[in-house]
Amino acid sequence: MLVLRRVFEDSKGRLWFVGDEVYCYDGDSLYHFSQHEALNRVVTREILEDAEGNIWLGTSNGIVKYDPRSESTDPFTQFGQEDGLMGYDVWSMEMDSKGVLWIGTLEGVSKFDGTSFSAFFIPESAPDSTRGVTSR
Asked: How many whole angstroms separate alpha carbon 96 and alpha carbon 43?
């Protein structure tokens, strides 16, 4: 059974289906991207597109950037803690109006300015078990 976490339409009108697998439907064909090493055996929770048309995928093993215009044999780039990301387990992402990618992980918040990742610190708060599931 396929578990989908997001359905996303990019600027070219392609539909992306992400979760336990990653698929892209261009209106004619359905492409399966989970066979790529960066997306194999991961859970994808988030997807967004930047101003250049790159697709960013937030996964259980960091972030994967897909450049559909890439002329290289591998249009995928994977980012993790070794690149400055706060944690591998990505749960949320948002691109702000200046093109900065904000990433929520289990270990904290990171931001990517197009060149490098940096930590963004939010003060800790005590878990409140009356407001749903907490990580502690």
From this structure: 24
Which helix (H) or strand (E) element contains residue 47?
strand 44-49
Of the candidates 128, 76, 84, which has an alpha carbon nearest to the alpha carbon of residue 108? 84
The encoded tokens of residue 8 equal: 């996303």
The SS3 of residue 7 is strand
Query: What is the separation of C-alpha 103 from the centre of its chain, rounded to a whole number of angstroms?
Result: 8
Structure tokens of 62? 């960091």
Interatomic CA distance for residues 134 and 106, integer angstroms: 11
Question: Is it the case that residue 8 has pLDDT exceeding 60?
Answer: yes
Q: Are strands 62-66 and 55-59 parallel, antiparallel or unpaired?
A: antiparallel
Of 13, 9, 11, 5, nearest to 21 by C-alpha is: 5
pLDDT for position 136? 52
pTM value is 0.87
d(CA 11, CA 109): 27
**Residue 85 identity:** L
Encode pLDDT of 101-114 as tens digits: 999 998 999 999 99
